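In the design runs reported in the main text, the only information available to the sequence generator was the tokenized backbone. The following block is the verbatim input for one such run; it is reproduced so that readers can re-run the procedure and compare outputs position by position.
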């Protein structure tokens, strides 16, 4: 599967949702959802979990000038 294309398409269609867990972590780290959306297209895929339950997901890494962020993105197939 072409994970970057799936992610890019979701961002372009504004079909991205943040779980409650993600929102709490973003708040704790003072990161906005806009910042995450901005880096999704350029993030490095570290691992992919095609058989993840309830839906496939990937572990992404983004390095900024201030910090390294790891996050999981999942989608309904």
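Verbatim output:
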């Amino acid at each position: 599967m072409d994970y970057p294309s799936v992610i890019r398409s979701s961002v372009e269609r504004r079909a991205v949702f943040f779980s409650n867990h993600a929102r709490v972590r973003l708040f704790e780290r003072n990161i906005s959802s806009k910042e995450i959306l901005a880096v999704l297209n350029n993030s490095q895929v570290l691992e992919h979990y095609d058989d993840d339950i309830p839906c496939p997901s990937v572990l992404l890494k983004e390095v900024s000038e201030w910090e390294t962020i790891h996050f999981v993105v999942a989608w309904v197939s």
